[in-house]
Amino acid sequence: MQDARTAGMSAAQAKAIEFLIVAVSVLSLALLFQPFSLALYSIGAGLVVVAGLAFNLVPLCTPGRSLMSLVRAAAIIVVILFVVAALSMGSVELYAMYLTAR
After folding, report:
1. Is 37 among the domain residues?
2. What is the pTM of this model?
3. How far is residue 100's CA from residue 72's CA, in Å, rounded to a whole number?
4. Domain range holding 32?
C-alpha cells in the first residue's frame, strides 16, 4: 500500500495546482499594470518573480506524479534563486570595490 506522501496526485489535484499557478501569474500581471496604487504595483512586481519561478512547476502537474516530487522541484527552484541572488550581490560588491580602488 502506498504512503500518502508518495501516492500520485489525482487529475483534479494536478489541475488545481496548475490553475493556482496560472491564476497567480495573471493576478501578478494585473497588479503590475494597474494605474492606481504604487503599493499594488510593488506587490505585483514581487509576484511576477514568484509566478515566473512557479510556472516552471506546471509541467510537473500531471496525474500520477507524487506531490513530494513537486515540492522537491519547488525547493530546488528556490535554492537556485538564492544562489543566483547571492552571486549577483557578490558581483555588485566586487564591482564596488573595483570602482573605489580606481
Report:
1. yes
2. 0.79
3. 42
4. 11-101
